[in-house]
Specification:
alpha+beta; Lipocalin; eight-stranded antiparallel β-barrel; 2 helices
């Protein structure tokens, strides 16, 4: 009787251990798949040519299209205001100014961070807040859309829509 009880206990213990092992393997596989998918998205983003404004650098009249008030597509509370004099206002939460700084379009590799991969056909944007500068590759800049990719740090495309005419 004790022998049967001991065997039953061992069988249950093996089943529970098997469940935990399988669960951990499935979790590791899912995490690995997610990491591979993220790496593929980043790699594709670096190799694909976006639809607008990447065949050649923007001309001054095209650069002027950035002037205005822009709202982040996935966070309407976040807005950027580009002014004609090069001033930049980063606001959050209905217009409360988060930071003020400057912006300019970068047109040579000398003006980019040393680790940036320069593409002569692309347009680059520099935002400066105090002593900190942020660099972006402009993917789309037209009357209604602004999309840019940070050259360091965050690896997702930042998308804005114009909220003024």
């Amino acid at each position: 009787m004790v022998k049967n009880l001991l065997i039953g206990f061992l069988v249950v213990l093996l089943i529970v251990a098997g469940i935990f092992i399988v669960r951990d393997l499935v979790r590791e596989d899912a995490e690995m798949t997610e990491s591979v998918e993220e790496a593929e998205v980043i790699e594709n983003r670096e190799t694909e040519t976006p639809a607008a404004n990447t065949e050649e650098t923007l001309q001054p009249e095209e650069e002027a299209q950035i002037i205005g008030h822009w709202q982040k597509d996935d966070d309407p509370q976040n807005t950027l205001t580009f002014q004609a004099d090069g001033a930049l206002i980063d606001s959050y939460g209905g217009g409360a100014i988060y930071e003020t700084g400057t912006y300019n379009f970068v047109d040579s590799t000398n003006d980019l961070p040393p680790d940036a991969q320069y593409d002569a056909k692309a347009t680059y944007l520099r935002q400066a807040f105090g002593n900190q500068s942020y660099y972006y590759k402009v993917l789309v800049l037209d009357r209604d859309s602004l999309e840019f990719l940070p050259l360091s740090g965050e690896t997702r495309i930042l998308k804005y829509i114009r909220v003024d005419s």
